[in-house]
Amino acid sequence: MTALHEDAVRALTDWTPDGAGQDELRRDYLAHLAERPDGMWRACLPGHVTASALVVDPEGGRVLLTLHPKVGRWLQMGGHCEPGDDTLAAAALREAVEESGIADLALLATDGRTAPVKLDRHQVRCAGKDRPENTHLDVQYVALAPAGARELISEESLDLRWFGWDELPADTDRSVRELVARARTLL
């Protein structure tokens, strides 16, 4: 087992989810990791753990979403864990910084501790359009942006855009809406 795998188990074990559905997902994620020493890596099929972060500007009352090139929808920043990631939280923060272009993001901490805020299990074709779908076991965090932060689009996005709490695009999926609502509640 890698240090990242051990950290993911610790983070999920220590996290107190909000509601029975989230607790069931947490238990499923932990079972996946118990069965799969490679469960953190993209090569683990048919599913693997991913890390994401919703970038929030609390003072501006807005969230930054990326128009994902493979999915074609507005999503939070996130993706696959990499060998250089020491912790699951570090993987989420790395993805948020890379995809937003905002270098001075900080993950939301509660009681002095960084912890996930939500889990989401979804199907995606991360291995290519001609390959079967994989299951992403996404562990979601909130990343705080400084007031007035300016995004910088990367090759991983078709577009980046700030949206007010109540001004998400009409076709925003349920999972992203729930993540935004959870972040708003926590802030």
UniProtKB/TrEMBL annotation:
Q: Which Gene3D superfamilies match?
A: Nucleoside Triphosphate Pyrophosphohydrolase
InterPro entries (UniProt xref): NUDIX_hydrolase-like_dom_sf (IPR015797), NUDIX_hydrolase_dom (IPR000086)
Specify the Nudix hydrolase domain's residue ranges.
46-185
Tell me the GO molecular function terms: hydrolase activity
Matching SUPFAM superfamilies? Nudix (SSF55811)
Keyword terms? Hydrolase
User: Its family?
Assistant: Belongs to the Nudix hydrolase family.
Q: What is this protein called?
A: NUDIX hydrolase
